[in-house]
Amino acid sequence: MYGLILAGGSGSRLWPLSRELYPKQLLNIQNTESLLQATFERLAECMPSSHIISMTGVKHVANVRYQLSSLCDNPVVLSEPISKNTAPAIALAAKYIVEKFNTDPVVLVVPSDHMINDTEKFIATVKEGEKIAEMGYIVTFGIKPSYPETGYGYINVTDKHIERGFKVNRFVEKPDTELAEKYVKEGTYYWNSGIFMFKASVLLEELAKCSPDIYSKLSNFDFTDSNEIPFTEFEKMPSISIDYAVMEKSDKIALLKLESDWNDLGSWKSIYDVGKKDEDGNVKIGHVLDEGSKNSLMYSSSKLVATIGLEDTVIVETEDAILACKSDRTQDVKKIFETLKKQNDDTHLVHKTVYRPWGYYTVLAQGRGFLTKMIQVNPGQKLSVQSHNHRSEHWVVLEGMAKVVLEGKEHILSPGHSIDIDVKEIHSLQNPYKDVLKIIEVQKGELLIEEDIIRYEDMYGRV
Amino acid sequence: MYGLILAGGSGSRLWPLSRELYPKQLLNIQNTESLLQATFERLAECMPSSHIISMTGVKHVANVRYQLSSLCDNPVVLSEPISKNTAPAIALAAKYIVEKFNTDPVVLVVPSDHMINDTEKFIATVKEGEKIAEMGYIVTFGIKPSYPETGYGYINVTDKHIERGFKVNRFVEKPDTELAEKYVKEGTYYWNSGIFMFKASVLLEELAKCSPDIYSKLSNFDFTDSNEIPFTEFEKMPSISIDYAVMEKSDKIALLKLESDWNDLGSWKSIYDVGKKDEDGNVKIGHVLDEGSKNSLMYSSSKLVATIGLEDTVIVETEDAILACKSDRTQDVKKIFETLKKQNDDTHLVHKTVYRPWGYYTVLAQGRGFLTKMIQVNPGQKLSVQSHNHRSEHWVVLEGMAKVVLEGKEHILSPGHSIDIDVKEIHSLQNPYKDVLKIIEVQKGELLIEEDIIRYEDMYGRV
Predict the structure, then answer these.
(1) SS3 for A377?
(2) A364 contact residues in B (CB cutoff 8 A)
(3) Which chain B residues touch A398 with a CB distance below 8 Å?
(4) What is the rounded distance in angstroms from the CA atom of residue A452 to the CA atom of residue A373?
């Protein structure tokens, strides 16, 4: 079996913890690992790690690769040059597996940002699904609805059994409350989990029938010697979901009930729902002090959050933005996100702390002509060999030891020591030691933007 | 006439905006000036600035003097070495005025943290009060109660007129709701504003009668050649309020109704009450984005505060602490403050940004063996000539120009330039120029505390 992890995402639903450049699947909400990492580990119980492919947007590739690197050597991460929804991504992944591995296996496709705790039951469902997929069906995993949710799509099944699954009658869009209540009552409707399985050749055949506009363009991609998806070809793909492109049109769709727990963590309300509650029904994460609140979620990422007498409220603190929201309005977080985007307010886009393959940096202060960052370089890591056209830099070591190469000359700096890097000087920062390296960087210049960077060498392939 | 501004305070009620070391009167809540500055300016309409004395705790002296320096030359600020409530402070101020100025004037005593917008009506009341004080009465200003507040003390008056005031019958403690309702109905009860006037000699005579334990100790203080209140003598004073010590016992108390507006800003609820409301009844201060909240206060001091669907809620954001509180529970902010104090959590004590006579500093980052600050030195200001026993420092100029004297040698540094200061080296930082100076300071050492500072010279008298 092979696996495909869909690791895109806009980062809007769990704002301000998620950002456009740091979406939900990268977050570590409750555990010591991110949702993406948990997803990878779940799949690795069903297949060899080397059979797992992740597909993500070009903006997230470095972070996805970095997170997966701690779980396996050389994770396969394919990068979509622009967002074209799920159908082109899944079609290309199927082609990739067939060409690269010269095989026609069953492929398990999973979103990267859902929470499933009961891995054993998940594996059992996958094994059932594999049988049905081998029979030539596209098997979608359905969730037995526990209440009339209006935020999900539903799948209606016929009474025709295929092994332990059902033949699908039709897919339905997000219903209104009345319709959702009817669906739950009838018992033949399931929530669409976005998890499904198919033989690669079956998907490609169904694609040829149902979406020839996608299928016909697949021949323009060649993965035999490359892991790259070229922008010029990918751009020609229609932007369409796999549900629209195949699932709703094909007559080879089966539904299998997912036996494990499942939560799509689609809003702060659902984070509250899965959280561990105290005797007042509060979920407290981080540095929180409360006086008499009830049924509320308090999330502190660093600062003290003090709450008094709240009810059914969500408070989320991050370095540069605070959210305070009534629990029944958490869907509207998206509106705030969109407003910020329209206002060109970077608060929707990035955190003050930005993760990189080599560690992270935090913007500490900025002003007229200067920008100050704290930079952490993890042991064994190295920033690219680079220069800047518009800024000089000054580095002071805080913790650990730094190896700096400046215009070909090597400098080893211990805490308290500093170095000046002039405009256009070629330099690199490296931590070849066992302890974390922390430095303060003071940038000076008229133009202080991330884009002012000329890379000469990079151990993460970013040249 | 002379004035006494009582500028102490614990900083608990408007936490997290107020802190133990930055109490309410120093805050700039709505205007371009602090409550203390507004109080000083109000008094300066009634008397020469040189007649205004401020009394505050030793912890606040530098900040009080700094804020008043922008309003007059050499403001008189007396420092209480420890907190002994209001009676000893007022008694010493009366003695100070009599001895220092060799006169027996009427003294107007005012808290520094109340909001009064109608200065004209305030002045008119003061002029009425002066007449009654000249007749030998201690005149307290009463507020006509507009609702049965249980958080204030009340003053009951007789029907005996003294000019446009009344002879006082008795002072009453904070009542319960039933009693408060009765007081409001009866019409002979007023809220105790804490503002009062007296001839210095009258106060001292009444003190001799009502509180001989305080009066007898006054002779141990001598202000003829000094502005200092010695710790060893002040420590012997009882800790007692002027209400207990004199007002409740003396038969020379008159009450004059304060004709102006008045708000003691004693809680976030009262900040909401005086704030400018939008059409949904929200008061928004700072960088706030709202979706459908009602009757709420959103206060952002720097970061984005996004709110959705809140009702009757107070959200306050500061650099290191967030408060989210139902409007009817804002009195309980004190409980959070006390809990933090018990936990030795500095969040009750100081802000990340600490104001100094020469400007301010903000702690940007701290870790094992290092501490990083951004320091702003205002034009014309200079930090003390100093050295440290346990830390080295590294300064990088961000904005403006720095004059640094290190071991007797002068260095002029422009943006991007840096200097190292070793342990025990004597150094000073100065901004003799017209623009603001901003630097990054990286401290390195095993012991990084504010107290590790040996001062040799200081333009603010802190040696």
Answers:
(1) strand
(2) 364-365, 372, 374
(3) 365, 367, 369-370, 372, 442, 444
(4) 16
Residues of B in contact with A336 (CB under 8 A): 289, 291, 306, 308
| Closest CA relative to residue B153, chosen from B133, B179, B130, B186 | B179
Dihedral angle at the C-alpha atoms of B391, B395, B401, B406, nearest 10 degrees?
40
Distance CA B250, CA B237 (A): 20
Q: Taking CB atoms and an 8 Å cut-off, how many pairs form between chains A and B?
A: 196
Three-state DSSP at A316 gives: strand
User: Would residue A312 be called left, alpha or beta, if left means φ above 0 and alpha means ψ between -120 and 50 degrees?
Assistant: left
Whether A329 and chain B come into contact, CB under 8 Å, resolves to yes
Q: What is the pTM of this model?
A: 0.83
Q: What is the pLDDT of residue A51?
A: 96
CA distance A395 to A417: 8
Nearest to A421 by CA among A390, A382, A398: A390
Amino acid at B338: E
Q: Smallest Cβ distance to A324: which of B315, B416, B438? A: B315
The fraction of chain B above a pLDDT of 70, given in percent, is: 100
Q: What's the pLDDT tens digit per position in B204-248?
A: 999 999 999 999 999 999 998 888 999 999 999 999 999 999 999
Q: Is B325 on the interface with A (CB under 8 A)?
A: yes
pLDDT value at position A31?
A: 65
Q: What is the pLDDT of residue B346?
A: 74
- What residues have CB less than 8 Å from B461, skipping those under 6 apart? none
Q: What is the mean pLDDT of residues A314-319?
A: 93
| Residue of A106, A103, A59 whose CA lies nearest to A83 | A59
Contact B305, B315 (CB under 8 A): yes
> From the centroid of its chain, how far is CA B46?
21
Best mutation target, B12, B284, B294, B304, to test chain A (most A CBs within 10 A): B304
Cβ <8 Å between B444 and A310: no
The beta-carbon neighbor of A307 closest among B324, B339, B399 is B324
Predicted ipTM of the assembly: 0.82
Nearest to B379 by CA among B347, B394, B363, B401: B401
Cβ density class A235-247: b for 16+ within 10 Å, e for less = eebeebbbbbbbb
